Amino acid sequence: MQPITTKLVTQTIVERPAESYKGNYGRVLLIGGNQNFGGAIIMAATAATYSGAGLVTVATDPQNFASLHARLPEAMVMDYHQTDYLLELLAGMDVIVIGPGLGTDTFAEQLLGTVLNAACAPQRLVIDGSALTLLAAHPRPLPDLPIVVTPHQMEWQRLSGLKISDQTPTANHKAQQALGVIAVVKAHHTTIYTNEKIWFNPGGTPAMATGGMGDTLAGMVGGFAGQFTNFTAAILSAVYLHSAIADDLAATRYVVLPHQISALIPKYMHDFSVADPDEA
Amino acid sequence: MQPITTKLVTQTIVERPAESYKGNYGRVLLIGGNQNFGGAIIMAATAATYSGAGLVTVATDPQNFASLHARLPEAMVMDYHQTDYLLELLAGMDVIVIGPGLGTDTFAEQLLGTVLNAACAPQRLVIDGSALTLLAAHPRPLPDLPIVVTPHQMEWQRLSGLKISDQTPTANHKAQQALGVIAVVKAHHTTIYTNEKIWFNPGGTPAMATGGMGDTLAGMVGGFAGQFTNFTAAILSAVYLHSAIADDLAATRYVVLPHQISALIPKYMHDFSVADPDEA
Amino acid sequence: MQPITTKLVTQTIVERPAESYKGNYGRVLLIGGNQNFGGAIIMAATAATYSGAGLVTVATDPQNFASLHARLPEAMVMDYHQTDYLLELLAGMDVIVIGPGLGTDTFAEQLLGTVLNAACAPQRLVIDGSALTLLAAHPRPLPDLPIVVTPHQMEWQRLSGLKISDQTPTANHKAQQALGVIAVVKAHHTTIYTNEKIWFNPGGTPAMATGGMGDTLAGMVGGFAGQFTNFTAAILSAVYLHSAIADDLAATRYVVLPHQISALIPKYMHDFSVADPDEA
Amino acid sequence: MQPITTKLVTQTIVERPAESYKGNYGRVLLIGGNQNFGGAIIMAATAATYSGAGLVTVATDPQNFASLHARLPEAMVMDYHQTDYLLELLAGMDVIVIGPGLGTDTFAEQLLGTVLNAACAPQRLVIDGSALTLLAAHPRPLPDLPIVVTPHQMEWQRLSGLKISDQTPTANHKAQQALGVIAVVKAHHTTIYTNEKIWFNPGGTPAMATGGMGDTLAGMVGGFAGQFTNFTAAILSAVYLHSAIADDLAATRYVVLPHQISALIPKYMHDFSVADPDEA
C-alpha cells in the first residue's frame, strides 16, 4: 500500500491558467436527494461547488430546490423525474455524481439504470451512497468510462460480497479488479484501489463519524474530477484533502460537520496549489 | 443536592476511539414541529447534530422540510403523518426525542401514544415540550426503558401536580420517584432528579430566557444519550454544557440565541474531552 | 428638542434579574409579510428576537414560513388568514407589531381593523409600514392603549397631512398630539414625539438608506417594549441603538444591511446594560 | 484601450450626503430566475442589494421566493407571470436588470419583449445572461434609453456575430457601435465598449471561473447604476470592484464563490468612497 502524499496533491492541484473560463473547470451533474434524504445531495453539491467545479447542476426531487438554493445559489437545479431533460443535460456534462440521498426505491433504481445507459466516455462517473446499494441488489454491467465508487465498509460489503472482517487490502483489491472501477473504501484510514495499485489515506479522525461526510467526499471527488486531467490523482487528492481539512478542524472540535469541510476547500486547494511539490 | 462538576462532564465526554463509525455515535430520531412550531424541532435537531449524534432523522410536518434542510443538511427528514414508515425507522433508532414543537392537538396526542407504544429498551427516550403537556393531560403508563423528561417549571407543575411555589427539591424528588423517570426541571439553576440522587446545575443566566432554549437542550440530551453509555451522566453533561456555553456567550451578550449555543457545542465538547479529569 | 442620551439608554436596559424566565421578557406578536413583502416581517421578527423578546410569534402569509424559519428558527409562525386563531393568540400577547410588509389590499385593511379592535391595555402596540398607509387612507379611532407609530417622512405626510417640507418639530408635535400616540418620525436624525416632549436621535447615517431598515427598527421597538417598563424609554432606546449600531458599521461599510444591525443588538444591549449610567 | 483606474472608481463612488433616503439610491428591478436557474437571480439581487441599491424587487418564478428570502430578506418579490403587476412596478423603477437565470423558452422571450417595450428613459437597463441569448436569436430594436449588455465571450459571439477568435477590440467596438448600447465583454480581462471609447479592466483571476460570477456582476452594475449619475462610470466601477474583490479573495482561495464577493461590496465601496482620488 502506498500513502497519498502531500506531493501528489500539490502536483495535482495546479495553478489555474489566467486565460480560462468556467467551461474549463468541469460541468458536474449531481443526481440524488429524494424526499427524505435531500440534505445528502445539498452537501454533495456544496462540496463540488466549493471544490471549484465550473458549473454545477443538481437533479433532485423538487422538494429540495428551495433548501438547496438557500444554501447554494451557485448551483442549477432540475426535477429528476423529467427524464428527457435529464438526458439532454447529461449529454453535455463532464462529470456525473449519482447516489447521495438517492434512496433505493423503484424510481431510484430506474433512474440509476437510465444514467448508466446514457453516460459515455470521456465523461467521468462517481457512484456513491444509495446507488451502490442499488448496484449491489441489482447487479448490472457498468458502462465503459472512468468510474469511481465510494462505498463505506457496509456498502462495500454489499457491493463486493466481502464481509467487513474480510475486507483486507488484498481481498479488496481482488474485488476491485473484478468490478473494473476505482474503489474508494471509506474507513478510519480510507483505502483506494485502482487497477495498478493500492493507496491509503494517512488522514482521518473519528470526529468525521457523522452523517453527510460521505456525501461531501463524493461531491469533492466530482469537483476534482472535472478539473484535473489525471482521474486517479483527482480522486486521491479529494480523499486526502477531505480528511486533511477534517483533521485540522478536529483539533478544536469534538465533531466536524460536513458543511464545515466544504467551506474550507477553496483555502486548502489554494495552499496546495502554491506549495512547492519538492518541498512538500 | 449535588452539583454537576466539570470532572463529571470531563469523564463522560471521552475521546472517540480512532476506529469508529457514525453508527457508533447514535441514531437519533427527533419527533415534533407542527405547522406553527417548526422552529422548535429545527433547533432540537441542530443541537443533536452539533452534539455529535452519528445520524439524525427528523419526523415532522413536511412544511418544515425546506427550512430544516436550509439550516441543517446533515439531518434526514420524514413526514410524521406516515405512521408505518415512522415505526419502521423508529425500530432502528438508539435515541428518540419527542416533543419540541409537537403541539397538543389530537394528532400530536396520537403520535405520542404511537411512539410510547413502539419504543423499547435499550432505546433511550427524551420527552420534552408539548409532549409533557400531553402526558399531563392524558396520563398513560410509560414504557420500560431509560426515559428523561425535561420540563420547565410550568410543564413540571402540569406533570407532577406541584405548583411552582411548591417545587422544592424534596417535593420534586418525590414526584420524580412516582413517575419513575429521570426529571430535568429547568429553572435558573436547573435541578435533575434520578432515582438515587438530586443534582443541580451550577450554571445558567437570564440571557437564556428566550424561546427555543429548551428545544436546544432536548436535542443536546438526545445527542449525548446516543454517544455516552451512562445515561444519567450523558444527561447531566448536556445540561451542564448547555448553560456553560450560554454563560460564556452572555459575558458579551444581553440575550443568547439557541442556535448560537449549538454552534459552539463541538468546541466545548472537545475542550472537555481533552481536559484532565483530575485537574478539572 | 431633547437628545436621546447614552444615559437614558443605559438606565433603560437594566441587567436581567437572575431568577427570570422567557415569560418575563415579553410575548411579541408581529403581523405582516404578504406574498410580495415577506422579507419585511422576517427582518422585523429577527430584530425583535435579537432584542431579547421572550417569545416571538409571526402572523404572516404561509408562503413566508420556510424562509422565516430558515433564518430564524426561534420564532413561531401562524397563517394570518386564520382570524380565530390569531385572536386567540393575540389575547395572550404583551406587544403587537403590525405593518411590516403587510401591504395595503382589502385583506390587510380588514386585518388591521381586527387587530385594532382586539388589542387592549396593558398591551402595547407598534404600528409601522403599510399599516400606517392604511390608517391614513381609512382613518379610524385607535384603541386606548400604549401605541407608537413609526412612519418615515412620506408615511408621516399621509398620516399627519403635513407635507415633508412642513414637517417642522412644532407642526409634528401638534399632529402627534392630535393623534394621541407616540410618533417616531424617521429621518436622517429621527425625531420622537410624545405627549410631553420632543426628542431627537443624535445618530444616523446615509448608509442606512436601504430597504428593510424601518422594519428592523419596528421589530426592535417591539422587542424593547416587551422588556422595559417605561414605554417611552423603551422606544427611545430602540431608536438610539438602531442607529448607534448602524453608525459603527458604517465606519467601514458604504451601506449597512438591516440583518447586520440585528446580529449586533445582543452585544450592544449588553454593553449598555453594564455601563455606569453616571459615566455615560 | 484605456484601463479603468482606481481614480475613476474613487471619483464615482462619492460619499453619501447625510440628508438622503433610500429613494435616492435607486429602485432596482431584477427579472429572471426560472424553475431551473433560480440561483442566478438570487445572486444578482444579492449583489444589487449589497451594492447599496435603495430598494430591490425581484420578479421571478414563485418557486424561488423562499430561497431568495432565506438569503436576502432585504429584497421584495413578485411572480413574473403577473404581467400587469410587473408593468405597474416597472414604471416606478430607476433601473431594470433582465436576464440572470431567465432561460430561453417562449415565456422568457415574451417577458423580454414586454420589458423592452415598457422600459423608457430615464430608466437604465442592464441586459445579461439568457436575455442576451434571446436577443441574439430574436433580434429586435432596443428602446431608446441607457442600456448596457454584459455578455461573456460566447454570448457576445451570438449577439455580435463575431467568433471568439475574431473578438478583437476593434471588431468588438465596431459591433458595439452597430448595437448602440454599452457592451461589457467578460473575459480574463474584461473590455468595455462605449460609443466613445474602449476600456479594459486590469483585474481578474481564474478563481472567478465559476457559475454565478456573471449574475453577480449584472447585479452590481444594476446597483451602481441606481446610485451614480454617470452611467458609464457606474458600469466601469462595478466591473472594476467585482474583480478587485475577487483578486483579493483569490490570494487565499483556489476558487472564489459569487456570494463571497457580494458580502464584501459594502466594505470595498466604503474604502473607495473615502480614498483621495488624487492619491489613488
From TrEMBL, chains A, B, C, D:
Oligomeric form and interacting partners: Homotetramer.
Positions with a binding annotation for (6S)-NADPHX: A40, G101, H152, D215
Origin species: Lactiplantibacillus garii
Gene Ontology BP terms: metabolite repair; nicotinamide nucleotide metabolic process
Primary enzyme class: lyase
Protein's name according to its UniProt entry: ADP-dependent (S)-NAD(P)H-hydrate dehydratase
EC number: 4.2.1.136
Function, in words: Catalyzes the dehydration of the S-form of NAD(P)HX at the expense of ADP, which is converted to AMP. Together with NAD(P)HX epimerase, which catalyzes the epimerization of the S- and R-forms, the enzyme allows the repair of both epimers of NAD(P)HX, a damaged form of NAD(P)H that is a result of enzymatic or heat-dependent hydration.
Sorted UniProt keywords: ATP-binding, Lyase, NAD, NADP, Nucleotide-binding
Gene: nnrD
UniProt key word Lyase: yes
UniProt record similarity statement: Belongs to the NnrD/CARKD family.
Binding site for AMP: K186, A187, H188, H189, T190, G214
Reactions catalysed according to its record: (6S)-NADHX + ADP = AMP + phosphate + NADH + H(+); (6S)-NADPHX + ADP = AMP + phosphate + NADPH + H(+)
Pfam (any one): Carb_kinase
